[in-house]
Amino acid sequence: MLNVGVMVSGGGTNLQAVIDAIESGAITNAKIRAVISNNPGAYALERAKKHGIEAVCVSPKSFKSREEFHGALLEKVDSYELDLIVLAGFLVTIPGEMIRKYQNQIINIHPSLIPSFCGVGYYGLKVHEAALRRGVKLTGATVHFVDEGVDSGPIILQKAVEVLPGDTPEVLQRRVMEEAEWKILPKAIDMIANGELEPEFRKENIE
Ligand code: GRF
């Protein structure tokens, strides 16, 4: 059974998709051990509690320095003995120490087809604003492993979504979530939980 931790900052619709997929049996061999937020007001924490999942907040505001916050975050994550950490709209940069410790055990959902509209500064609505500005006709979402770069780790799954005439960033964001993010994030977790990743992603093949 894959012991999963989900890290969130906001509304948690991707978290909800994962919870629903576990409850419906679309994800097997995985359970959510805890949901961790940097933001005490994140609605994602309420979603977790409603489903009997441990929900905790580690806020940077409670610490004197970034280093102390990173230390506390890592300590909290370690305490759950997680096999997989899912970044589902987690807006805090993951400390390098944590990335090295959990190499190939941290995945992220990004709301574009990487390598388009990703990297520093591309988060939330900004991604969709940039896609509309460029006039792309297809966008989508990507699930990838997290390495020490920004949105630069190995890609696990992608799904394309059409951009339609008259789209606003908000409308496009919603379509990308509904048609891509909420599908490929649960799918990637199920694949990892069931050992279905291609050999190049398997932990034993990565030094
Ligand atoms: C999603 O668009 C995700 O791709 C991005 O942050 C957003 C989180 O939304 N990384 P939610 O909190 O899951 O509703």
How do the strands and helices of this protein lay out in sequence?
Blueprint lengths: L1 E7 L4 H12 L5 E8 L5 H8 L3 E4 L8 H14 L4 E4 L8 H6 L4 E5 L14 H10 L3 E8 L9 E8 L6 H25 L14
Helix pairs in contact: 1-6, 5-6
Bound molecules: 5-O-phosphono-beta-D-ribofuranosylamine.
5-O-phosphono-beta-D-ribofuranosylamine (GRF) binds next to α1, β5 and α6.
What does this structure look like?
The longest helix is centred in the C-terminal third of the chain and has 25 residues. The radius of gyration is 16 Å and the shape is globular. Helix 1 packs parallel to helix 6 and helix 5 packs across helix 6. It is an alpha/beta fold. The protein is built from six helices and seven strands. The model has no long low-confidence stretch (mean pLDDT 95). The protein has a seven-stranded mixed beta sheet, with helices on one face. The site of 5-O-phosphono-beta-D-ribofuranosylamine (GRF) has 15 residues, from helix 1, strand 5 and helix 6.
Looking at this protein, list some descriptive labels.
21% strand; 207 residues; alpha/beta; globular
Helical content stands at 25-40%
Number of strands: 7
Ligands: 5-O-phosphono-beta-D-ribofuranosylamine
Class derived from helix and strand content: alpha/beta
Largest sheet: 7 strands, mixed
Radius of gyration: 16 Å
Point out poorly predicted stretches.
none
Order of helices and strands: EHEHEHEHEHEEH
**Which word captures the global form?**
globular
